[in-house]
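To whoever is on call:

I kicked off a structure prediction for a single chain this morning and the downstream step that reads the tokens threw a length-mismatch warning. I double-checked the sequence; it's 136 residues and nothing unusual in it as far as I can see. Pasting both halves so you can look.
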Amino acid sequence: MKLKTRRRKYLREATVMLATARMAVSWLPASRVLAWAGRAPRRINRFSQDEVGWVTWSVETIGDKQWMKALCLPRALAAQAMLRRRGIASRLCLGVARDGEALAAHAWLELGREIVVGGAETPRFQRLVEFGGKAA
């Protein structure tokens, strides 16, 4: 597959998944969204590590667009769903940190010990809970 075609394919899929994740976070109860995040892949594909880079790139690229305005939770959910479709298990993590007198929340996606989505702000957050299968 040509590079240009592959790029378009991933950007289209990321657009659909981010829009779906944004709607799910807005309209569905948290229990249903997090139950969806906790599902494991139907099959395990151990040879598709190249896919991780493409998924991360496409979710971050579309999530940064002004018209998408995707926050950390929809980005992590979308990337997790895209990886799950490819048979790659990942963990969705939720954490909190003090932001002055208030609490700030953050979501990120881990694959093994590596943070693949939402990693820029993650070090200051204390992990509360994680969802998903064992990350390879």
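Update from on-call: the warning came from a stale cache, not from the record. Cleared it. Sanity check on the structure: Residues 3-131 form one domain.
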